[in-house]
Amino acid sequence: MRFFRQFLIFFGENTSYFYERESNVIIKTMFRLVIQSFILSAVLVQNIYAMPDVSKALHEVSFFSPTEKSVKLDRYEGKVMLVFFGYTHCPDICPTTMLDIRKSLIELGDLAKRVQPVFISVDHQRDTPEIVSKYVDFFDKRILGLTSSKEMIDRITKYFKIPYELVDSKNNPNYIVEHSSNLYVIDENMVVRRIIPNGLPYTEITKTIRSLSVTN
C-alpha cells in the first residue's frame, strides 16, 4: 500500500510532464507523416501526368511504307493518332491491340474519319514495309503500318520513353521482341493525351477519342 501511494503521488506530480512529452512526440510524428504524404502524392501525380513530349519526334523521324520511302507522322497533325509499337510476329499483345483498335473505329462511326491509327514495327530486321502493311490490313485497312531503320526506331522509342529489344536475334531466326504494350493517344496538336495500357477494354479507346472530340 505504501508503495502504491508513493507511486500515485509521483505519477500525479509528473502527469503534466508525461502528457506534454507524449503530445510533442505525437505532433511531430503526425507532421512528418503529413509531409511524407504530400511528397508521395506529388511523385504519383508527376508519374501519372508526365506524358512524353513526342511532337519533335513526329516531325523528325521518318518511316517506310510500301509506297513511300519517307513518311513522317506530322502529316497527320489535325487528327487524333493512336500509336502502337510492336512487331508482326507478336503472338498476343499486338493482334489483340489491333483488334481493339478495329472495334473502336467501328464503334466511333463517322468520328473515325478524324482518327489515324498507326502501328510501328520495332522489328527492323524482319519486318519490311510490305510485311507490316499486309499485317495491319488483315485487321483494318484504316490502320497505317510503318517501319524504319534501327536508327530511326531508336530515336522515336527514345522520345516515347519506351524500351525494346530483339532478344537473341543473332542466334535465333525465330527471336521474340520485347516491346511496350501501351497505346498512345495523341491529339490534333500532336500532344500525348493518354496512355492506355494493354488489358483495358477497347471502349477506353472510344471514350478517350470522344472526349478529345468534345474538348477540341
Structure description:
With 216 residues, the chain is of the alpha/beta class. The chain has 2 domains: 1-50; 55-215, Glutaredoxin, CATH 3.40.30.10. It has 6 helices and 7 strands; from the N terminus they run ααβαβαβαββββα. It has helices spanning 2-49, 55-60, 93-108, 129-139, 150-160, 203-215, and strands at 80-86, 115-121, 144-146, 165-166, 177-178, 183-186, 192-196. Strands 3-2-1-6-7 form a 5-stranded mixed β-sheet. Strands 4-5 form a two-stranded antiparallel ribbon. A hairpin with a 5-residue loop joins β6 (183-186) and β7 (192-196). α3 packs across α6. The longest helix is centred in the N-terminal third of the chain and has 48 residues, at 2-49. It is globular.
Q: What fraction, in percent, of the residue positions are helical?
A: 40-55%
Strand content: 5-15%
Spatial separation of the terminal alpha carbons: 83 Å
CATH superfamily of the largest domain: Glutaredoxin
Shape: globular
Please write the CATH class name of the largest domain. Answer: Alpha Beta
Question: Taking strands numbered 1, 2, ... along the chain, how are they ordered across the largest sheet?
Answer: 3-2-1-6-7
Radius of gyration: 28 Å
Structural class by sheet pairing and helices: alpha/beta
Architecture of the largest domain, according to CATH?
Answer: 3-Layer(aba) Sandwich
Contiguous runs where pLDDT drops below 50 for at least 5 residues: 7-11, 33-49
